[in-house]
Amino acid sequence: MKIRHTALSLLTGIALAGGAYFATAAPAGAVVQAGAVVHPSYEEWTPGKYYQPPFCRIIYGGVEYECTAAHMAWPGFEPPNVPALWRRV
After folding, report:
1. What's the distance, CA 22 to chain centroid?
2. pTM over 0.85, yes/no
3. What CATH number should be reported for the domain whose range is 42-89?
4. How far is CA 71 from CA 21, 36, 38, 41, 61, in A?
5. Any bridge partners for residue 57, and if so which?
6. pLDDT one-digit tens code per residue, 17-44
7. Name one GO cellular component term (predicted).
8. What's the N-to-C CA distance of the chain in angstroms?
9. Can you tell me the distance from the alpha carbon of 15 to that of 33, in angstroms, rounded to the nearest whole number?
């Protein structure tokens, strides 16, 4: 079981790029969801919170996003709805 857990922690998946397969490493403690690595220390997106780049990353719907412009988060301005404010990582 420990070997399997370690392997899952180290390998996040295999991607197909130009016909070649390669593996990517995940940070220790990261959670793998649907082929994406979600860092455990990132907070969930929260309405009413002020976000400011450059080092602002959040989780919304199990997906990691990076803030691209300073703003106050409001309902309706969720990361997938406002690409001018959030970039999917």
Report:
1. 20
2. no
3. 2.10.10.20
4. 39, 26, 23, 21, 20
5. 66
6. 344 433 344 445 445 445 555 566 799 9
7. extracellular region
8. 30
9. 14
